[in-house]
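We were asked to recover a plausible sequence for a given structure. The inputs and outputs are reproduced exactly as logged, with field labels preserved.

PROBLEM: sequence recovery
POSITIONS: 327
GIVEN STRUCTURE:
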């Protein structure tokens, strides 16, 4: 349904056909990537990501030409297959938009201009929270914002089949549905195997360790608790899943380290492993000096200290790993 919208003299249109080429338009810091994330990651071509692919640095402006070249190749491959595609870049230059519209036309795919008109002051403020290499100078942000405003009324004339303003869109539902599907699959609620006993592993150490994780069932190393290893080539880390790590029935992990008392100790020295940092410290040997190390032959590291007076141990962190946003 199209109704007339007075303030910009363009009819309100919320149509995004599938397939279509969605061209995000907005200044740096406008929140374009948040909107892009409501589509599956494979459908989003983010210019910053292509800069990083060719130069290891998403903010490297010198890499823009090569990044655009690579993005264009993927764009054409997708449009040739009539695949829904979202281009996440400022797209505030008329020449850039014209090239995108022409490409989509060539493959007979409709085009959508998705305008993200976040106020310039907000866009500029958001730059302050970014790391230096990705921070866009205030003057540039203001110029991009002005260019977006100037281009807006002319977008239909540029050949876009639909001009959609982000503030009128309902995109939360597809985003939440996709996240919920992932979650159900991990729990095995979709009829698949799910992550099962790896759910806790992932919560503590993140998804990247899962392919290297192997349960060593039948191992007596941990006094009846379940033992696992993380193994890659010549490297190996041994862990125990403690079913009562704090005497209060909480589950947690400990990692096998060298005994801090005696190099030749025949016992097993265990240190709490709360997160991926602890695994890195276990591998470098640093973790054996942790105050919470306890050896099966020597006992706790600080025999005369009050138990855990100065250290909270692991159990404080119930969900130390939060899944980071996709690159
Ligand atoms: Zn020992
Ligand atoms: Zn402790």
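RECOVERED SEQUENCE:
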């Amino acid at each position: 349904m199209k109704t007339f919208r007075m303030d910009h003299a363009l009819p309100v249109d919320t149509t995004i056909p599938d397939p279509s080429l969605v061209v995000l338009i907005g200044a740096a810091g406008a929140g374009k990537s948040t909107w892009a994330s409501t589509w599956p990651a494979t459908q989003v071509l983010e210019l910053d990501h292509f800069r990083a692919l060719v130069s290891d640095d998403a903010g490297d402006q010198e890499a823009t030409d090569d990044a655009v070249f690579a993005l264009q190749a993927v764009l054409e491959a997708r449009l040739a297959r009539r695949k829904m595609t979202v281009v996440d870049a400022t797209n505030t230059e008329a020449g850039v938009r014209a090239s995108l519209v022409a490409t989509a036309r060539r493959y007979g795919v409709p085009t959508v201009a998705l305008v993200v008109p976040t106020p310039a002051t907000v866009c500029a403020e958001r730059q302050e929270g970014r790391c230096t290499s990705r921070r866009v100078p205030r003057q540039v942000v203001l110029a991009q914002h002005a260019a977006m405003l100037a281009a807006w009324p002319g977008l239909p004339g540029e050949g876009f089949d639909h001009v959609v303003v982000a503030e009128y869109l309902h995109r939360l539902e597809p985003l939440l549905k996709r996240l919920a599907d992932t979650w159900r699959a991990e729990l095995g609620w979709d009829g698949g195997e799910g992550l099962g006993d790896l759910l806790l592993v992932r919560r503590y150490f993140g998804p990247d360790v899962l392919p290297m994780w192997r349960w060593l069932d039948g191992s007596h190393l941990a006094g009846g608790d379940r033992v696992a290893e993380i193994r890659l080539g010549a490297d190996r880390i041994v862990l125990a899943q403690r079913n009562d790590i704090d005497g209060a029935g909480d589950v947690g992990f400990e990692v096998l380290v060298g005994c801090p008392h005696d190099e030749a100790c025949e016992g097993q020295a265990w240190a709490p492993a709360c997160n991926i940092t602890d695994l890195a410290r276990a591998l470098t040997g640093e973790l054996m000096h942790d105050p919470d190390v306890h050896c099966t032959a020597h006992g706790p590291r600080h025999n005369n200290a009050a138990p855990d007076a100065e250290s909270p141990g692991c159990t404080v962190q119930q969900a130390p790993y939060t899944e980071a946003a996709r690159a």
